[in-house]
Specification:
The complex is a heterotrimer of chains A (about 120), B (about 350) and C (about 290).
Chain A lengths: L6 H6 L4 H18 L7 E2 L1 H8 L4 H13 L3 E8 L5 E4 L8 E4 L4 E4 L5 E7 L2
Chain B lengths: L3 H17 L2 H10 L9 H14 L5 H12 L2 E9 L2 H7 L2 H11 L18 E8 L9 E21 L4 E20 L3 E7 L8 H10 L10 E2 L3 H9 L8 E10 L4 E5 L11 H12 L2 E12 L6 E7 L5 E7 L2 H15 L1
Antiparallel strand pairs in B: 1-5, 1-6, 1-11, 2-3, 3-4, 4-5, 7-8, 7-9, 9-10
Helix pairs in contact in B: 1-3, 1-4, 8-10
Chain C lengths: L2 H13 L6 H9 L7 H12 L9 E6 L8 H9 L5 E6 L6 H5 L4 H17 L4 E7 L1 H12 L7 E5 L9 H4 L8 E6 L4 H8 L6 H4 L7 E5 L13 H12 L7 H4 L5 H7 L1 H22 L1
Parallel strand pairs in C: 1-2, 1-3, 3-4, 4-5, 5-6
Helix pairs in contact in C: 1-3, 6-7
Classes of the chains: A alpha+beta (about 120), B alpha+beta (about 350), C alpha/beta (about 290).
Chain lengths: ~120, ~350, ~290
């Protein structure tokens, strides 16, 4: 079960144990209900904030850092186009100022409003 | 005879009304005061109808100001809801407390008479109103009105410099007065109504600034955000039952696999819930770890002829809803109560 | 640069930059931050860009244990509070303090360490209400922190097995805390606070007698020193959880049915009388021994 990957982290990071247990429970529940679809999970920071009940932005940032550094999740930044489609990048510095929207085949200026962070499970 | 101060005030209020509303709203007001309303344009409306009516005391400056209040304090706003315990709210609303803090801040004069400012240099509290329908009881609410100037960038022209191959776009900055309202009720609800922005969808900075501005009178300790997630879900789930009250225009949803679903009716006037295909698709999407992230509906105001609907957006922050179009105080109150009742 | 400094820098940059220039400015800032903090920085930017905001009802419950333990009861508190939304538990520990150290004047080490950790928690979770739950020597540490650091404030405090002196100046050190935000859970069979009072200096029997102060709610239970953590008694769920979540104080039935404290116990709860008697007995004993040998 995927959630077992988090057990060592719960011991290594006792101060964030509650948050890590909550994400482990969430993954376990998801996998029970939807099986291999768990590997397709893509969570945004707001959703993760709710799942782990972080309470504060700083705590969310610390927990996300742990999940990424420990290879549970990886970050993908999605540039969202007006029609709803998106293009992914691995870091903020990679995102250019202008991108061609593949669905409309036009250039689009990128600002922070069109960038969404998302976290994808590593497997 | 109008005093020179009242004449000047009348002109200021008129200018503010002109920017905030339409002639028909002002004419409706004049009709209630039995003032003739025919006029070729705004300027004529003021010189031929409003100014003489003020001079002849057919209505007072205070009544004229109330019209401005009702027009600019409701609608075209994003609203953020917070709650605290009723006992905390009642403690904050004690008249002696408000009066003494207002005096410390040098704004106790606003409790008697608001400041009529057009474009202040910085965000300014221009009105303080203690809502006390029954003077024998504790106040029912406190309203703090803040006026500020927003600089709006508007595209004006573009040129191509043939020599360098540069496209030069010119923007002009215009200044726009924007009104924000903080309303604390004795039941514990704190509502921040912030004038809609032109170029941005995020209001965090404005909410933060506003909470800071009112923090002496309404400290933020003890307030929690009032999440409208339940209302968003209920508007969708109970759409059949709510069909008489709400017309469904757009829905956005996201699931835990990162997929986003956006469904819109063809035109603003149409009702999305009439389309079984769209609703079926949304049902399936939400049934598999999906959740509604935004909803765009029209709220039917009861007992109105002709029928009147007020546009309501519930999206953005957890405690945010927006009334993007102008509306009256009564219409806003109805929409707000609807949102809160859908959330419980 | 540590985590706290990094977050301070990020917040300053975010708040002082116009929205459409923020990403550019933060990318520039990243070049000045140590590489080991880049991951934290990216996570923080993710949250801010997504519009995540501190939940105003967020709570951080900080647990501080007593002597001769590493706070095994912390796990119990964690599991009882797991289902509360936006509540996180932080266990603050320190090197094992033995009974010998407890009765000696050498107590500063744990106090310094816990103060540092609490400041860190307050900063990192500063959108959250900070609530303290302290047991035994942990209560003494909290009392020292409050008296020596006027900038440190808590939303609520729960003491159990308290060894804080009963004449502690609550009126001075917790002026800003509202009424009924500090609970002192007293075990009427708890001898340790009494022992600490008459065998040493600086402690008191508040964990046995109560503070009997208008700023503190004393609640009495038929418990020993650590019975608060006995799973069979369900104390955490029944008495602490309502207080933490709603601020509601669940009264203890033992308050009204507890027996009168015996006179000898009351005597030894008085620091001056108790110490006088105790050290008097020690001195007499030593003299007798010297005479014998």
């Amino acid at each position: 079960m995927f959630a077992k990957k988090l057990s060592p982290l719960i011991h290594s990071y006792p101060q964030e144990a509650m948050a890590l247990k909550r994400i482990a429970n969430y993954l376990e529940d998801f996998e029970k209900r939807r099986g291999p679809a768990v590997y397709k999970i893509r969570l945004d920071p707001m959703r993760l904030f709710e799942i782990i009940q972080a309470g504060t932005t700083s705590r969310l940032a610390v927990v996300v850092k742990i999940l990424i550094d420990e290879n549970i999740f990886c970050r993908e930044l999605i540039v969202r186009f007006p029609l709803g489609n998106g293009m992914s990048f691995l870091s903020y510095s990679e995102i250019p100022e202008v991108i061609r929207d593949p669905a409309r085949d036009v250039e689009m200026e990128i600002n922070s409003d069109s960038i969404e962070a998302s976290y994808v499970l590593v497997h | 005879m109008l005093t020179p101060e009242d004449k000047k005030l009348g002109e200021i209020i008129f200018r503010l009304l002109k920017n905030a509303t339409s002639q028909s709203v002002v004419k409706e007001f004049l009709k209630t005061k039995r003032v003739p309303i025919s006029a070729a344009n705004w300027d004529e409306l003021f010189t031929k109808r409003i100014e003489p009516a003020l001079t002849q005391k057919q209505f007072t400056i205070d009544e004229f100001r109330s019209l401005l209040q009702s027009v600019e304090e409701y609608g075209r706003q994003h609203c953020f809801l917070f709650t605290c315990t009723p006992s905390r709210a009642q403690a904050l609303l004690k008249t002696t407390r408000i009066e003494s803090l207002a005096k410390e801040l040098g704004i106790d004069g606003l409790l008697k008479k608001p400041l009529d400012l057009e474009l202040p240099n910085e965000p300014t509290i221009v009105d303080l109103r203690i809502i006390n329908p029954d003077p024998t009881k504790e106040p029912a609410g406190l309203v703090i009105k803040i006026v500020e100037v927003r600089r709006i960038r508007k595209f004006s022209s573009e040129d191509v410099d043939q020599l360098t191959g540069d496209l030069i776009k010119r923007y002009t900055f215009t200044e726009k007065r924007s009104v924000s309202i903080a309303h604390l009720r004795s039941d514990g609800f704190l509502e921040l109504r912030i004038a809609s922005q032109d170029n941005q969808t995020r209001y965090h900075d404005l909410v933060r600034a506003m909470l800071g501005k009112i923090s002496t009178l309404i400290p933020h300790d003890g307030f929690a955000i009032y999440s409208l997630s339940a209302a968003k879900a209920k508007i969708y789930k109970d759409r059949v039952g709510l069909a008489q009250d709400l017309r469904y225009s757009t829905s956005t949803a996201r699931n835990d696999l990162g997929a986003v679903m956006q469904l819109s009716s063809s035109a603003q006037e149409d009702n999305l819930s009439d389309d079984d295909g769209s609703m079926g698709a949304l049902d399936t999407f939400l049934g598999l770890d999906g959740h509604v992230t935004g909803t765009n509906v029209f709220v039917r105001i009861p007992n109105m002829t002709p029928e009147r609907e007020v546009h309501l957006l519930i999206s953005g922050d957890l405690n945010e809803f927006a009334v993007p179009a102008a509306c009256s105080e009564g219409e806003y109150a109805y929409v707000r109560e609807k949102v809160v009742s859908l959330n419980s | 640069m540590n985590t706290r400094e990094a977050i301070e820098l990020l917040e300053g940059t975010w708040n002082n930059t116009i929205p459409n220039k923020r990403l550019i400015q933060l990318n520039i800032l990243k070049m000045t931050i140590p590489e080991e903090l880049h991951s934290l920085m990216d996570s923080w930017i993710d949250a801010k860009l997504s519009g995540v905001q501190d939940n105003p009802s967020a709570m951080t419950v900080v647990l501080i244990h007593g002597i001769q333990t590493d706070g095994a009861w912390h796990k119990q508190v964690e599991s009882q509070l797991q289902d509360v939304s936006h509540l996180n538990v932080k266990s603050i520990g320190y090197e094992c303090v033995t009974a010998f150290q407890l009765f000696s004047p050498v107590r500063r080490g744990p106090i310094k360490k816990v103060t540092r950790d609490i400041r860190d928690s307050i900063f990192l979770d500063r959108g959250a209400k900070i609530i303290i739950v302290a047991h035994s020597f942990g209560t003494y540490i909290v009392s020292k922190i409050l008296s020596e650091n006027s900038d440190i404030e808590f939303d609520k405090i729960i003491f159990c097995g308290s060894i804080i002196p009963t004449d502690y100046r609550w009126d001075t050190y917790v002026k800003s805390m509202p009424r009924e935000s500090i609970i002192n859970d007293v075990g009427t069979r708890d001898f340790y606070p009494v022992l600490a009072t008459f065998t040493s200096f600086g402690y008191g029997a508040s964990g046995r007698k109560g503070f009997q102060s208008p700023r503190i709610k004393d609640r009495y239970f038929d418990y020993g020193h650590s019975d608060f953590f006995d799973p069979k008694r369900n104390h955490i769920s029944e008495y602490w959880k309502p207080f933490l979540i709603e601020g509601r104080i669940v009264e203890s039935e033992w308050d009204t049915s507890k027996p009168k404290t015996s006179f000898p116990i009351l005597l030894f709860c008085n620091p001056w009388l108790g110490r006088t008697i105790f050290f008097g007995i020690i001195i007499v004993f030593i003299v007798i021994l010297m005479n014998i040998f």
